[in-house]
């Protein structure tokens, strides 16, 4: 469905993404987890052909068998909406406050699919119904300000689904929402992906939300995928020190763990310009080897499709 | 011995008119909330947006006055104190805010901001004493004394939150109100700040009112919990007890939402922290 090979995005002298190789097959749900500055949103934009002007793209992106690496704007436009669609973090900012939400959702139906006004209206109502909006007939005529955050996110999902995309990229879709609303949105994304056979790429810093939504997980740090694999394997036996640190730093929410110091990853996420040349986690890693500062660790194949990039896995010093 | 005692606290806000001749009923943001906090105790206030948790913080800090109920801090009813008397008491109770990017004056050096609570007290102090206190406080929160002359934009989000904590503890307060103080931070940085708050609490016997929407974060720090929903207390008590056996279905829902998955077993959660 979509595949990247050694995808690198260069902005000035800095590499915002380095050697990203991943693939999403039809119907697959893949989670991208990382902290701010990890490059996870940049990856989403690269896959939508929406990188900033000054960014140079190296490597390869293949979508439905088509090489999109050097594609121009027109080629990307033809692909968006029908093949790939995206939803963003801020459900407040992503809707035009002066237009009824129904009109917004009908735009792509009329423009891309060439439906008549009436067909588009019926289709929009069906989409609202599919995304769990109560009383869709009435909500079609509502303005964004009269909807709650969760309802707006549902409208945006309906908008993204309008042209039946094969892949939905959701960039932090639950971050601005309350816990139980977030949970219902992730449940909805799983259901839509199952019913439509639609692939889902779920980008978030929220491990809990991602873990309950996807089958496979990729952990990003400093513009690289440091570890990837099936959710269960990654959470139960994380092999990269960053993934281990990230999981341990989360308060465990177990009665026996109350008021206990949390294990921390020392330091802060480095800026793009300050990334170390070898392993990007060098300098913060608790189990660093001399080689880590200078040489990039190779991707090591572990059990099943579980991979991690760490020198400890290849030098035999676990 | 009680440091903070809140009784029947209620706060209503007028709502904007939608019809010219008919006023709308006021919104009750906080409805009959009571709690007590002993010196050195930590309480977590948990709730979703609109639950009234930030209103509670503003009332405790004396930024607003309640419509009903009392807040006794160390015996004084804060709501009846004059502005002047309140200012005099404020070194004893300080606050840290959610957004470390907007809570520091970008045009002032970090040292100036941290020393502000000392100056606000209008106690006569020579500048050498003040800068010595600032230097000590910076080191207590894990920064270095030389950071005093730098400006907020030179620091990361986590470091700025350390600066905000330094500003709050420079007066050696007995109570710290933290409103979503780690919500804007990345997971790895969040753990550092939670550990810092835990250390300060252990070292100084500081009482903490820790407000958050994240049950996991709150329960890692607090002895007791208070769950707010639409301005009302739905459950309150010992943190251990509430986590083990949540009584109200709303608390149960918050718990299951905060866990990785409500239904699937989560083997790694019960295991030891992964060792690198």
Mind explaining what this structure looks like?
The complex is a heterodimer of chains A (318) and B (276). Chain A has 318 residues and is α/β, with parallel strands linked by helices. Helices cover 31% and strands 22% of the residues of chain A. In chain A, β1 and β2 form a beta hairpin. In chain A, α3 crosses α4, α3 packs parallel to α6 and α4 crosses α6. In chain A, 48% of the residues are buried. By secondary structure, chain B is of the alpha/beta class. Helices cover 35% and strands 22% of the residues of chain B. Chain B contains 10 helices and 10 strands. In chain B, the strands form 2 sheets. Chain B has a 6-stranded mixed beta sheet, with helices on both faces. In chain B, β4 and β5 form a beta hairpin. The C terminus of chain B is likely disordered. Classes of the chains: A alpha/beta (318), B alpha/beta (276). The interface between A and B is large, with 41 and 49 residues.
Structural class of chain A: alpha/beta
What is the residue-mean pLDDT of chain B, rounded to a whole number? 86
> What structural category do the secondary elements of chain B indicate?
alpha/beta
The largest contact between protein chains, plus residue counts on each side, is: A-B, 41 and 49 residues
Layout of secondary structure:
The complex is a heterodimer of chains A (318) and B (276).
Chain A: E1 2-11, E2 14-24, E3 29-33, H1 40-47, E4 55-63, E5 66-67, H2 73-79, E6 84-87, H3 101-111, H4 117-130, H5 136-139, H6 149-161, E7 167-171, H7 179-196, E8 199-204, H8 207-211, E9 216-221, E10 224-230, H9 231-236, H10 241-249, E11 299-301, E12 307-309, H11 311-314
Parallel strand pairs in A: 3-8, 3-9, 6-7, 7-8
Antiparallel strand pairs in A: 1-2, 1-4, 4-5, 9-10, 10-12, 11-12
Chain B: E1 4-13, E2 27-37, E3 42-46, H1 53-60, E4 68-73, E5 76-77, H2 83-89, E6 93-96, H3 110-120, H4 127-140, H5 157-169, E7 175-179, H6 187-204, E8 207-212, H7 215-219, E9 224-229, E10 232-238, H8 239-244, H9 249-258, H10 267-270
Parallel strand pairs in B: 3-8, 3-9, 6-7, 7-8
Antiparallel strand pairs in B: 1-2, 1-4, 4-5, 9-10
Helix pairs in contact in B: 3-4, 3-5, 4-5
């Amino acid at each position: 469905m979509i595949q990247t090979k050694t995808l690198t995005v260069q902005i000035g002298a800095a590499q915002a993404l380095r050697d990203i190789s991943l693939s999403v097959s039809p119907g697959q749900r893949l989670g991208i987890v990382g902290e701010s500055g990890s490059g996870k949103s940049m990856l989403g934009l690269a896959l939508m052909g929406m990188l900033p002007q000054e960014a140079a793209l190296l490597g390869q992106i293949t979508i439905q068998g088509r090489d999109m690496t050097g594609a121009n704007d027109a080629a990307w436009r033809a692909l968006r909406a029908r093949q790939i669609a995206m939803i963003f973090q801020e459900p407040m900012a992503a809707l035009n406050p002066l237009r009824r939400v129904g009109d917004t959702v009908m735009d792509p139906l009329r423009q891309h699919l060439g439906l008549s006004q009436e067909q588009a209206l019926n289709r929009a109502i069906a989409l609202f119904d599919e995304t769990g909006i109560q009383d869709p007939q009435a909500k079609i005529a509502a303005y964004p300000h009269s909807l709650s955050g969760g309802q707006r996110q549902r409208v945006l999902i309906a908008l993204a689904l309008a042209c039946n995309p094969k892949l939905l990229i959701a960039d932090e879709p639950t971050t601005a929402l309350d816990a139980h609303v977030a949970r219902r949105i992730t449940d909805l994304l799983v259901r839509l992906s199952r019913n439509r056979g639609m692939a889902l790429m779920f980008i978030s810093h929220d491990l809990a939300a991602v873990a309950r939504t996807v089958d496979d997980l990729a952990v990003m740090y400093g513009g690289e995928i440091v570890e990837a694999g099936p959710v269960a394997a990654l959470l139960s036996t994380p092999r990269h020190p960053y993934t281990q640190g990230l999981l341990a730093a989360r308060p465990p929410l177990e009665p026996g763990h109350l008021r206990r110091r949390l294990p921390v990853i020392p330091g802060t996420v480095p800026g793009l310009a300050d990334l170390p040349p070898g392993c990007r986690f060098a300098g913060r890693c608790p189990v660093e080897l001399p080689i880590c500062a200078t040489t990039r660790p190779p991707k090591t194949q572990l059990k099943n499709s579980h991979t991690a990039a760490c020198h400890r896995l290849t030098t035999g010093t676990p | 011995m009680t440091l903070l005692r809140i009784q029947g606290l209620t706060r209503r806000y007028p709502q904007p008119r939608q019809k010219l001749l008919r006023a709308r009923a006021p919104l009750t943001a906080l409805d009959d909330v009571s709690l007590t906090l002993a010196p050195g105790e930590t309480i977590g206030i948990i709730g979703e947006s609109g639950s009234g948790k930030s209103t509670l913080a503003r009332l405790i800090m004396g930024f607003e006055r309640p419509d009903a109920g009392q807040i006794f801090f160390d015996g004084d009813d804060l709501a009846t104190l004059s502005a002047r008397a309140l200012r005099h008491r404020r070194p004893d109770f300080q606050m840290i805010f959610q957004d470390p990017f907007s809570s520091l004056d970008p045009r002032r050096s970090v040292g100036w901001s941290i020393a502000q609570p000392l100056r606000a007290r209008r106690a006569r102090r020579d500048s050498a004493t003040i800068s010595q206190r600032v230097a000590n406080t910076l080191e207590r929160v894990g920064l270095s004394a030389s950071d005093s002359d730098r400006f907020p934009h030179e620091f990361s989000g986590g470091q700025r939150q350390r600066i905000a904590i330094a500003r709050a503890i420079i007066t050696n307060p007995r109570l710290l109100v933290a409103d979503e103080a780690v919500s804007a931070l990345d997971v790895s940085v969040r753990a550092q700040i939670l550990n810092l708050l835990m250390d300060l609490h252990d070292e100084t016997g500081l009482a903490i009112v820790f407000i958050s929407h994240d049950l996991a974060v709150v329960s890692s720090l607090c002895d007791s919990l208070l769950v707010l929903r639409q301005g009302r207390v739905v459950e309150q008590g010992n943190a251990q007890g509430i986590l083990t056996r949540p009584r109200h279905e709303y608390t149960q829902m918050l718990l299951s939402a905060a866990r990785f998955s409500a239904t699937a077993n989560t083997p790694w959660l019960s295991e030891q922290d992964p060792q690198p």
